[in-house]
Amino acid sequence: MMLKRIQALLLRSPGNIVGLLIISGVLLCAILADFVAPYDPLETNLRHRLQPPSKVHLLGTDSFGRDILSRIIYGARPSLLIGVNAVIFALLLGSAIGIVAGYFGGNYGYLLMRIVEILMCFPSILIAIAIVAVLEPGVMQLIIAIAVANVPSFARLAFASTLTIREREFVLAAEASGSSRLRIMVKHVLPNIISPLLVMGTLQLGSAIVTEAGLSFLGIGIQPPTPTWGLMLNEGKPYLRDAPWITISAGGAILLTVLGFNLVGDGLRDILDPRYKLIRGG
User: Mind listing the pLDDT tens digit for each residue in 130-166?
Assistant: First the structure.
């Protein structure tokens, strides 16, 4: 019932509908890339290199004669795979840290959050670069790097929310009845702070995709010849004047995907956080 209500509320706003359509389109491209892509993304044809958009190649070709549209479609796979898994991991770990620190409090709890705040002083892309440099490039390594870079944001939000919830009557009643601390955190605290965490998770998906593209652009992400949007940006950089469609296509894919997640995230925030809606005058 709750999911149906959220779905109905999301569909009331044109912005939310646009966001859902964009995300659905990118997701379908990633799942059905083998059937949707007009060409093999790795197939080279030097006779057709750097061709502008045409009926044969809708988005043109790159410096190796590879079809840009096919590479954009296949590039959705690593972007979503890495972005979604990184955010899920960051959400789980960050929420656990924040809830434990907020519920137990004391010197250990606040010390834990001071460490989190120190990590928040560094840009997430910088933390991800440092981790990838140690672990070497790879899908799992990228997921770990981007997840760790986003853990402080979730931990901070979970900590602040838990500080409020732990003083509520139902938590005090559960403590008085002899419930274990683990049970209280899982059964009483977590369900009451999950809404803002889910909203942040949706918004962080766009950030994770941009981070993955940035790492690939710098050459420390997914390695060639696997098509990724960040790698395509890097490959199109030398041809920005003569063949701008390479960079524009990859940048447009990143822009649309991030826009889709941000639109849906804003819609969820309006639905799940009545206080934010009141602030906006909704």
Answer: 888 887 778 888 899 999 989 998 999 998 888 888 8
The predicted-structure confidence for 36-58, as pLDDT tens digits, reads as follows 999 999 988 888 888 999 998 89
Burial (CB count within 10 angstroms: exposed 0-12, middle 13-18, buried 19+), residue 77: middle
Q: Which domains does the chain have, with CATH numbers?
A: 2-279 (1.10.3720.10)
CA–CA separation, 28 and 76 (whole Å): 9
Within its chain, how far is the Cα of 130 from the centroid? 19
Nearest one of 153, 260, 145 to 212, comparing CA atoms: 145
The phi and psi torsions of 60 (rounded to 5 degrees) equal: 85, -170
Q: Is 179 exposed, middle or buried (0-12, 13-18, 19+ CB in 10 A)?
A: middle
* Both tokens assigned to 90: 């960051």
Please give the backbone phi and psi of residue 231, each rounded to the nearest 5 degrees, phi first.
-65, -35
Q: pTM value?
A: 0.87
Which backbone phi and psi does 67 adopt, to 5 degrees?
-70, 125
Rounded to whole angstroms, what are the CA distances from 183 to 24, 157, 178, 247? 37, 21, 10, 51
